[in-house]
Structure formats: structure tokens, C-alpha cells
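New to this. Please check this fold:
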Amino acid sequence: MTKVAIKNENITSFGGIYHIMDVFSKLGFEKLTESVLGRRGCSGKAFSHGSILGSLFFSYLCGGDCLEDINALTGQFRQRPGTLLPDADTVGCGLKELAEENIVYRSETSGKSYSFNTAEKLNTLLLRMIRRMGLIKGSSVICVDVFRISLMKELKLCIK
């Protein structure tokens, strides 16, 4: 037999995301993001990089697969007290601000050009988040294979 519990609080289909938001908050990801990526805007009123990445990430975890899905979820996110996340337009602008120039490698043997992007700040942020979650040891050296060129040379981004 199924038991039914009567709850006085609001229950939403995305209620599980609130727990993940709490975990992110307790781990200090907002401050970590600002320390790696810097402050956004000069007036102090702009959404932080942490809020922008949080909005994108939380939307993805709720099944969103494009920026516009964020707009459909902001109402759900706002039901969590103290939560204010940017809309899809702000997220798009914030992500453009984080873009880095591509690096072009031209092969001497084939003459072909290869374009790649190391996204150094974002990779640094990801590795520091992983370290903060305790998934790697503080003294570990992690190398991320960014791009493999035809002569089997590797460009590696190493964070110590």
C-alpha cells in the first residue's frame, strides 16, 4: 500500500536542484569563480561570473539543452529563497566575455592550419572546482590534453 504524506511547503518538479545549489554555495564556488575569472562589470550591479555559470549549469541539470531554456526555469529557481540568477541573454553576454582568442597552428609538413582554444581561465576554474570537491589531492599535478596534432605532439595545460 502506498503512503501519502501531506506537506505544507511548496513542492516543485525541480526541487532537487535546490540541494545542488546549496552544495555549490557551501563549497564556495561563487567566490572561487570570482577569484579565477575576476569581477564582472564596474558598477557592482552586474551578475557575477559565478551566477552566469550557475544559471547555465543548473539549467543543464534540469534538462535544458540551449540557453533559452534558462528563461523557462528562472521562475523555478526563484522559488528558492535568496536565489537570483540571470536570464538567457545575460548568460550569453557573460559567456562571450569569457571567450579567448583561438591559437592557430600551421603544420610545416602538410601546410594545413589547425585552430584550437585552450580556454585557460575556464580550465583553471574547472580544475580548482574539482580540487575543492575533493576529487583530486591538493598536491596532484593534472594535465588536460587540449589538442592533439598530427605529429603526436600534445599541448597540455598543467595546473599545479
In short: The chain has two domains: 16-97, 103-159. The beta strands are 103-106, 113-116, 142-148, 154-159. The two ends are 56 Å apart (CA to CA). The CA atoms of residues 22 and 91 lie 21 Å apart.
